[in-house]
Design goal:
about 200 residues; seven-stranded antiparallel beta sheet; five-stranded antiparallel beta sheet; 1 helix; binds dTDP-4-keto-6-deoxyglucose
């Protein structure tokens, strides 16, 4: 088995589709709640705070030529993939994000290098350090996100559930918080779903 690099903070077993193993997520800043699996039941994934964000351990095929990871919509992640984009050439000290989506769901992967994702659902704010190309962070709708601490040469791959739509963004934190805290159930704060 390939050794983890110095940046590795998760105790994550290598995932091969034919050999399922229990998943362990442990870092200084990240606590995963192993209880109560959500409706989506991909290969192996656990709920983590904020309550509706999840780290998903993606399949890895390793052989002497290297490693291959694949992602199928509605199989490994709980949505159909309608858009792919990636962030790269991020200068040292720069941050991205600073918004939430009304409907969009995304999976973020540190395809190369590392960066931190700070998530805030209006109740919980937590840092997810990403540094593994087989580890995806699923961000459901109505979660504020900020990305920073990009390492040199890092690449953030994003799989999105829909095409780009500026109207889907909350780019003002106060507006987001007003809407997110208006409903009683976290993650169910989307105005287009009829919450009042
Ligand atoms: C997110 C983080 C991780 C497009 O025209 N099409 C696109 O698909 C996207 C994603 C962006 N754009 C335009 C909109 C802005 O004029 O590109 C410009 C930069 O977008 P933004 O400031 O939203 O970029 P980030 O890196 O702050 O955020 C992006 C995504 O927008 C967002 O959904 O979660 O990456």
């Amino acid at each position: 088995m390939e050794q983890m690099t110095a940046h590795h903070t998760y105790e994550t077993p290598v995932h091969t589709p034919e050999k399922e193993k229990p998943l362990v997520f442990e870092t200084g800043t990240h606590t995963a709640d192993p209880n109560e699996m959500p409706a989506f039941s991909g290969p192996r994934e656990k709920r983590a705070a904020p309550q509706y964000a999840r780290l998903i351990d993606l399949p890895v095929i390793r052989d002497l030529r290297g490693s291959l990871t694949y992602i199928e919509g509605f199989h490994h992640i709980p949505f159909e993939i309608k858009r792919v984009y990636y962030l790269y050439d991020v200068p040292g000290g720069a941050s991205r994000g600073g918004h939430a989506h009304k409907q969009l769901e995304q999976l973020l992967i540190a395809i190369s290098g590392s960066f931190d994702v700070i998530l805030d659902d209006g109740q919980t704010r937590q840092i997810f350090p990403l540094n593994r190309s087989y580890l995806g962070l699923h961000i459901p709708r109505m979660v504020w996100r900020e990305l920073d601490n990009f390492s040199s040469g890092s690449v953030c791959l994003v799989l999105a559930s829909d095409v780009y739509e500026e109207d889907d963004y909350y780019r003002n934190y106060d507006e987001f918080i007003t809407e997110a805290t208006r409903t009683t159930e976290p993650g169910d704060a989307c105005p287009t779903r009829g919450s009042t």
